[in-house]
Every structure is written in C-alpha cells, then in structure tokens.
Amino acid sequence: MACSPEEIERKRCEALERRNARLSTVAGINQQPSTSKPLQPLNSGLGLNRSLSSGSQSTLGSFLNKSHENLDLKRKTNSYPQSEPPSKLIKQINNTSIGLVNNKISPINPTKFFHQEQQIKGTVSMVSLTRFEVDIKYCEPFIKYCKTLKTSMYDQKSKLWSFDITEYKDFMNGLKNVPMVEITPLPQYVYRVFKENANPKPQKAEPDLSRIDPKLMETLMPFQREGILFGINKNGRCMIADDMGLGKTIQALGIAHYYEADWPLLIIAPSSLTHQWFQSILEFLPSVLVHEIVIYTSKLYLDNNKVTITSYDLLVKNIGVFSGKRFGTIIVDESHTIKTLTAKKTEAVKKMIDQSNHIILLTGTPALSRPIELYSQISLIVPNFLTMHNYGVRYCNAEQTKFGWNYKGSSKATELQLLLKLVCCIRRLKADVLSQLPSKLRQVIMLDPNLIDKGTEEMKEAYQKCSQNKGNLHTTIIQCFNESSSQRIKAVCNYLEEVLENQQKFIVFAHHKCILDAITDLMIKSKVKFIRIDGSTRPEDRKAMVDRFQTQKNIMVAILSITAANAGITLTAAKLCIFAELYWNPGILCQAEDRIHRIGQNESVVIKYLIAEKTVDDHLWPLLRTKLDFLNKAGLNQDFSLDSADISKQVISESSDSKQGKIDEYFKMSSSNFKTDNALADKVNLMLDEDDEDLASIDLDAFQ
Q1: Which of 136-140, 268-272, 437-441, 586-590: highest mean pLDDT?
Q2: What is the pLDDT of residues 32-73, one digit of tens each?
Q3: What spans are recorded as compositionally biased (Polar residues) (predicted)?
Q4: C-alpha span between 182 and 177 (Å, rounded)
C-alpha cells in the first residue's frame, strides 16, 4: 500500500530517533526524554522548494531541510548534559571515543594500540650472611639506580648486583622511582633473621659447661664442643646435622645434660638404635644411674624415670600413654624419618614436642632428596618459621597443578643453607675436620659381563613386562630391580672370592635377601667366620655381633643389609667396605659407608661399588649423581662424590688387565650401551625416585 509523502516523512523521523537512542546507549549517556518540537520544514536559501496548495513542501525540499535537522539532532544527542563539569566530560570522552569501545582496540590511542611496556621482573635472595643479590635481566634504569647506593657491588661472573643487608629497606623504597622494574622482596621472616644477625650484639659470656658430666667433656673434640655451645646458644632447640661418624650422639647428650633441670628426657630413635642410646648414656653420663634409664617396651604406663628411650613405632602406637606425661627435653635421632608433615610419626613427635622446652634433632642426611623434607623438621624446633606454602614457593620451586601445589623442586639453595645456619642448624662435613679423621677412597668395580650375560635376557623380559603393566606399576618395577640383582650373584661371589684371598677384614652391603644369602653361603663354603646383620636381627643381638667383629681378629667379614644396618653401628676394625649392589638413595649409601669411616678409625678406608653393566645400575648411577647436585648446592651435601671414584674392570680370564678411569667415562659408556624405550626409562626412573615409605608395602622377597 502506497504511503503519502507525509507518512513517509513521519516514519523516517521515528527511525532516526530510534537510531539516536541506540547511539546514546552505546556511549553510556543517560538520554533525557526528548522535548524538541516536531520537525518543521525550513525554506531553502536555494529556492528549490515550491509551495503546494496544501502548504506542504515538495519531496526534494523536505529531504534537504530534514537532512539539516537530522545533522543538528545527531550533534545534540552526542552532546553531554550541561550539568556535567568540563573536566569530567573530557575524561568520559577519552574513555569512550578514544579508548576501547566495545572491547575493540583503538588505533588512535598508541598506549592501547601497542600495549603498555612489560615490567622487568627480578627477585632478591641472600648470598652471604650479610649481603643480598638481585637476580634480574639487563635493565638500564635499574643499573643507574644500583650505582647510586653506597654498598652496591657488581659481580662480573654472575652479572648481578649485590648490596649489604643494612641497606635493604633503602633499596626497596628507592625502587618505586625506577620504571618498568618489579622486584620480589625477601620474606619478612627471612629479612628479620639476617638483619638481626648483622646488628652488633653485646658480647655474651660463654655458657658454664661445668654443668655437663665431666666424663663427657673429657672425650669431646673441639668441633664437638662447638656443637654443644651452638645448641645451648639456641636454648636447646637445634638440629645437629653433622656428617655421619662425627659424634652427634655425644653432642646431643651434652646439650641435654646442660638442661638436666628440665628433665625427664625422652629419646626417640629407630628401634635398632634404642639399645645403643642406652649404652651411650651409661658411657658418657655416669652421673645418671642405670635404674633411672628405661627402654620403653609397650607398657600401659610410664615410670618416673629420668630418661625414657623409645622407638618411633612404639611412640605412634602408644601416643596416648606418652602424651600424658611432659618431657622437658627431647632428643629425636635420625630426624629425617619425620620428613612428611601428615605422617603418623611426624604427628606423634609434634604432639610430644609441643609440651617441651628443649628439642634436639639429629640427622646425618638433612635433605635426602628434596628440601621440602626439611620443613617438617625445622617447624618442630622453630614455631614461628615460614608457613609451609611460603617455604615451598621460595625454596622448593613450587608449581600449582590441577591437583594442587607441587613442592618437589628446589630453589634458592644458598639462602636456605644460610637461613638454617642462623636459625637452628649446625652442620660439619668430614672435610671440615679432616685433620682428625682419616681419608676415604672410593672405587667402582665393573663386574665381569660374562657372568651376568645369562641374566640379561631374563631382565629384558622383566622390562618388557614392566612397560606393558598398567595395574600395579610399583610391584612390577620392583620385580625388574630384583631380577637385575639376582642375576649378579655369580659375578659378586666371584669377586668376593678374590677379596677373601687377601685375608683382610671387610664389610659387605647388599639390599636383597637373595644376595645376602648367597654371600652367607660363600662364607660358609670358604670356612670364613662372619657376622650378619639384617632386618631380622634383634636389636640386643646387634651390639654383641658388632663387638665380636670389632674385638675378635678371626671374625673376617660383616654381611650387612643396606637399609637395616646403615646406621647406628661402628665397624672401624675393617678398612674395606664393599657394596654388592646399589641403592637409589645417596643418603643411605653414605650412611652405610660411614660404618667404617668414623671417629676411632685410624687408617684410610676404601669403599668399593660393584657395578653390573646393562642392568638397573645404568639408571642408578646417573640418578644418584643428580640427587647429589642439589645437596651440594644447598650446603647439605653428603661428602659423597661419585666423580672422584676410580673405575676398575673385573677380569676373569686375564690377570693383569685393569682399566682405570673416572666415573664420567662409565656414564658415557653405560648410556650408549644400554638401550631402552623412553616410556620404559621414565618408569624405571620413577621407581628410583620413590621414597622408601612409598615402597615399604611391597614384599621384596616375594620375587625371589
């Protein structure tokens, strides 16, 4: 149906009004209801309009006049209310017409178009007891700023700037004026510890050590006396992390006896070491009577003894009994056992420590594999320490995954070492007291490959089974490990026969029962007198066996389990230690080594590792080296250098052909000769990285 010119004009005006309303909404303007009069046609100055008899305009004249009116209307609707101040109008205009409109980038504004310049991020960490360092990429404004500070120093090697801790606050405040730089500061707790250490302190009088039993004081070496003073200066809340064999037991007893007024004393130790603690107290603290010492044996109550000795397992099972009595002083031996916060052992120990004034932790391996394992120990003796998350982010290279936070990494190892030294930890390596200890020499013996060829094919079948198994992966991987160890029996026994010909005392470690049994059979066959200590040996029998080995010259060999006899015994009568097989934890191996390399050893000792090519050993050696890297950087190293070990090749058919070299040569050789698919290698490495607790439920002997 045709519309008259007037109707067309009316509809066009309505459409324009609707369009203007939409524009006002987009611009964020609160449009007021229109009060303008209906549009009236204007006479054109060009004389193009002609009057009609009805007074209406021609179509052309109406179009031109309405176009001018529409333009004027558009200008009015895009204007802002007069009540708004000019400054606000300008700001609104910049935000709407020049910046982002409908989330689109405007090329008119260069800041929005090219984006803002990225911040250069850096982090602060302590590199000594008095200086902090800034790890940051090259930044000219930052360099100019560093040169203005009094204590700034530039390290040509690391290409980083460092400053004195006394200038830390000025440094952080001045960064506000440095463009494009964002620095992660030190945690407040960390800054406070280092700042207090840098402040001059009044000279303190040395503690009166006459309160300690004279018998113990007479036997102390200088570094042991220093350890006791350290513990007393920390009010009896400390971690003694000396290397194995440096006398942590005597230092702990010295600190504890200094605080005898705060007894009763509780000693928590692995079950295999409880009797040794009993003997040590009798030897070094004769002022404590024998009837005042008790080894707890699962009673329903605790006697009023001055000293109570218990194992971790008994403490967990009888925590209700123990928590009912307050112990003013507690010694926790092998404290790395409580490396997991949620473990029952940790919870039980924490419950006892919460009631105590003095806590002494002892460990020869303060960081077995991951720095997060230190946290549960530190938090026991330093209640106001960093939270677990803050500790994990700073020192464990924490990563957030879909399953939560992963704290299994490591970062800022130097700062962590320095912090622990100031807060609670003292650690000396054998190298630090070398003048008082004999040297240690390591050797790697490559077993005769002809004696392990038969086992290689069987081992490959086990590897194949491992790669296909998706159910119980741990069990299958352990089977691979067992298969590898069982195939080395002939080569190991062959080598030990050669060692027996030298008629010298030695100790030999193994992990699997099949190898321990084979070595035992060899000694019986060779009519050699020996002792054997493994997981089935009762604690009271261990000391008697050790005493026999130490005092009787005809006892030539000590056959020991790596995990059951790696701590708490002294076998310095031997000068040779042989590992018939490896273990995936370097701390355990180092502890085992120190059964002969301890105080009381007057001669140099030799440590020999028997290695079988094309077995799990090809994975174990590189893994052990990798795990030691962080410990060395953190200052928690085990004094356990694989690189310095010499390699000798066992030869059966030739008597004089021996090959010497460095362990790096073996790494290169093993990596090229031993081929597996990547998936299988990953699974084997996964097993090697497992903690002992994760594999404790698997019966190793079931695979024999």
Answers
A1: 136-140
A2: 444 444 444 444 444 434 443 444 444 444 444 544 455 454
A3: 27-38
A4: 11
The answer to whether 590 touches 424, Cβ cutoff 8 Å, is no
The domain in which residue 79 lies consists of 5-28+56-113
> Any idea what the CATH number is for the domain that residue 464 is in?
3.40.50.300
Which H/E stretch holds residue 3? none
- Whether 416 and 563 map to the same domain: the answer is no
Rounded CA gap, 162 and 131, in Å?
6
Residue 395 lies in a domain: yes
Nearest CA to 309 among 278, 355, 336?
A: 278
First-to-final CA distance of the chain:
101
Residues 422 and 537 grouped into a single domain:
no
Angle at 617 between CA 614 and CA 622, to 5 degrees: 115
Q: What is the rounded distance in angstroms from the CA atom of residue 331 to the CA atom of residue 334?
A: 10
Tokens (6 digits) for 635: 């200052």
Kindly state whether residues 423 and 451 are assigned to the same domain.
no
Backbone angles phi, psi at 411, to 5 degrees: -160, 155
pLDDT at 484: 74
Q: Is the domain of 448 the same as that of 423?
A: no
Average pLDDT over residues 606-629: 74
The CA distance from 108 to 114, in Å, is: 11
Compute the distance between CA of residue 695 and CA of residue 478 in angstroms, rounded to an integer: 9
* Bond prior to 264 in cis (omega within 30° of 0): yes
597 with 518, same domain: the answer is yes
